[in-house]
Amino acid sequence: MKIGIVGLPNVGKSTLFNALTEAGADAENYPFCTIDPNIGVVPVPDPRLDWLAEIYEPKKKTPTVIEFVDIAGLVEGASRGEGLGNKFLAHIREVDAIAQVVRCFDDKNISHVDGDISPDRDIDIINTELMMADLAAVEKRLEKTEKQAKSGDKIYLKEAETLKMLINTLEEGKNIRQLELDQTAKRLVKELQLLSAKPIIYLANVNEDEIDSPDNELVEAVKIHAAQDGAKVVEISAKIEADIAELDEDEKEMFLEELGVNESGLDRVIKAGYELLNLITFLTAGEQECRAWTVEKGSTAPEAAGKIHSDMEKGFIRAEVVSFEDLKRVGSMAAAREEGLLRLEGKDYIVQDGDVCHFRFNV
Ligand SMILES: Nc1ncnc2c1ncn2[C@@H]1O[C@H](COP(=O)(O)OP(=O)(O)OP(=O)(O)O)[C@@H](O)[C@H]1O
Ligand SMILES: [Mg+2]
């Protein structure tokens, strides 16, 4: 699951990306790897996993991860090929969700491609480029579909009708994500990898000394825009995050305390990204390893087991499940069992966020 960091040039995308991946490199035990200089694997912070590791004292503690992709800056006209636009847009097609970095910091030494600091205009430029790229993709597909529809085949007629609806939406300047999609539309959006259909969060990148300061007009502008898009805003200062990422754990805590925050901006970005991807976490615990795993919301117990090993899914018998909250309240797995909090669940069980699972299976 990948999140693309998108925005105009010089808005702080790489600074944020470096902070995210730098922080990841320090994560205990996690076999951190940079797949590509522009793709970073980032551990998802989870206090539940920390608690389990304290109780079990396992040899290994393994967080779950998401990937961030640092995409080069888009400029106005990207969808017409300006500034290597087509290549960068192709990178965005590959990601599952978009984090749009919006410049809200002021620094005369760092030039803005369009002159002054204006979150509203910047968001419009980026979203317009994404919509234009979508429009081109949909129009191209419509040409093909219209030829196929000449046969009178209902599937193609319906497809053409849907494509026209998508074109209308884009021409009105609306993102595809704002639409309710039927099956045909869903299929087409997926096949065409439409950019304006991807889930989005906005990251308001503010000056170091303005983090969480009230009445920041620039951040307000981002919030208004995001609300129209049904999206969340996370306020960060990529610059501070880059500095924090270089500290060791103790220094980090002291620094955050001084700033009066209990969670780094990076953690907020990672969590928001995780939610955006419609993912939940289940946990496994034992003396060998305590681990957090990712599944899509709505996954069944065998599907979750399959994340661990395909044999576990194929030979699934049942899952022993206790919710993390219950487990923490009673303090141990033995106590959870005694109090009847450890449930036996079958193959239709829908895994819930925070379930601590043990799978029984046959090979
Ligand atoms: N919150 C901030 N406050 C002050 N300066 C910042 C902030 N965030 C980033 N910068 C600075 O802005 C400059 C541009 O940042 P960066 O290289 O990360 O931009 P970018 O979006 O990756 O640009 P490009 O699209 O060209 O790759 C850097 O000098 C960086 O230190
Ligand atoms: Mg960059």
Which short descriptors sum up this protein?
single chain, 363 residues, alpha/beta, Rossmann fold, DNA polymerase, domain 1, Ubiquitin-like (UB roll), 3 domains, 6-stranded mixed beta sheet, 14 helices, binds adenosine-5'-triphosphate, binds magnesium ion, Ribosome-binding ATPase YchF
At the fourth CATH level, what is the homologous superfamily of the largest domain? Answer: P-loop containing nucleotide triphosphate hydrolases
Strand fraction equals: 15-25%
Q: What is the residue-averaged pLDDT?
A: 89
- CA-to-CA gap between the ends? 29 Å
Bound molecules: adenosine-5'-triphosphate, magnesium ion
Sheet with the most strands? 6 strands, mixed
Low-confidence stretches: 25-35
CATH topology of the largest domain: Rossmann fold
Family: Belongs to the TRAFAC class OBG-HflX-like GTPase superfamily. OBG GTPase family. YchF/OLA1 subfamily.
GO molecular function, one term: ATP binding
Protein name: Ribosome-binding ATPase YchF
Cofactor: Mg(2+)
